[in-house]
Amino acid sequence: MTEPLLVLDNIKKNYGAIEALKGISFTIGKGEVVALLGDNGAGKSTLVKIISGGMEPSSGKMLFEGKPFLAKSPSEAKRAGIETVYQDLSLCTNVDVVANFFMGRELTKSWLGVPVLDEREMEAQVAQAMASAGTTIPSLRTKVEHLSGGQRQAIELNRFVHWGGKLVLLDEPFAALGVEQTRRGLEMIRHVASQGIGVVIITHIMQQAFQVADRIVVIRQGVVAGDVARENTSPDAVIAMITGESLTGAGSAG
Fold it and tell me: What is the pLDDT of residue 199?
């Protein structure tokens, strides 16, 4: 059994007298895809914010790569290799694919002692990253505003992998995509996981969870109502966990 990539141990979050999270415990392994399911208000978004540095827990602890971890900001989480990809993404639509890929990390070369952008090398690296992921974009010099939702999502995920990402949190990533774009997105998630990267996908669509996840974790009213391998459960059993009708098939909450 390899060491988990991320361990959540009794994570709680209070807002005054309101308990948003009442003690969340589960693990995420390297190369594992975990689908995080639950009704609106169950605590999923709060948990993602805590993992990604957008919010601090009231109590509990996290281990990342075997070491105590608590990001004080999203930028600190990014430096550690944790990225959150939201439905609306974080791309700049008025510049091209290459510029987005290297945003804040531009490569330069010296010309007469003056640093200038190394456009050729940046484009070559982006082309290689896209090709290795099986992503096709007609021109890397196309402004992002002219690309489809699926292509934009591929850019964001490829960028994350290229810069050494270790854990990616996908918050309803396919909500605005069509059937074919969603299919490609799910394939992309499996490709990312195959490189040893941990993936957490939050989705309301049960079919997507069963298509892509290795494990399904259900949060209900701030606690883990189920933590099961995908092959050991069914959509009906997961719905029961989400609604609280029955916890049959739920594993230990850790």
Answer: 96
Q: For the residues 35-60, what does the mean pLDDT come to?
A: 93
The backbone torsions φ and ψ at residue 171, rounded to the nearest 5 degrees and listed phi first, read: -100, 105
Report how far residue 60's alpha carbon sits from residue 116's, in angstroms, rounded to the nearest whole number. 47
Longest C-alpha distance within the chain, in Å?
Answer: 71
Q: Which run of H or E residues covers position 153? A: helix 149-162
Structure tokens at 123: 């484009």
The domains of the chain are located at 6-81+165-243
Q: Give CA separation, 119 vs 94, 100, 165, in Å.
A: 17, 13, 23
Q: What is the rounded distance in angstroms from the CA atom of residue 30 to the CA atom of residue 123?
A: 29
Query: What residues have CB less than 8 Å from 183, skipping those under 6 apart?
Result: none
Reduce the DSSP state of residue 190 to 3 states and report it.
helix
The more confidently predicted of residues 217 and 137 is: 217
Range 6-81+165-243 classified under CATH 3.40.50.720 = no
C-alpha to C-alpha distance for 74 and 93, rounded to whole angstroms: 21
Q: Cα–Cα–Cα angle for 155, 146, 195, nearest 5°?
A: 10
Q: Quote the pLDDT of residue 159.
A: 85
> Residue range 177-200: average pLDDT?
88
- Among 91, 41, 67, which Cα is nearest to 204's? 41
Enter the pTM of the model: 0.83
Please give the pLDDT value at position 46: 93
At 71 the three-state DSSP class reads coil
Q: Token pair of 12, please?
A: 């709680």
Enumerate residues 6+ apart whose C-beta is below 8 A from 71: 51, 52, 53, 77, 80, 82
Place of tokens 């390297």: 30
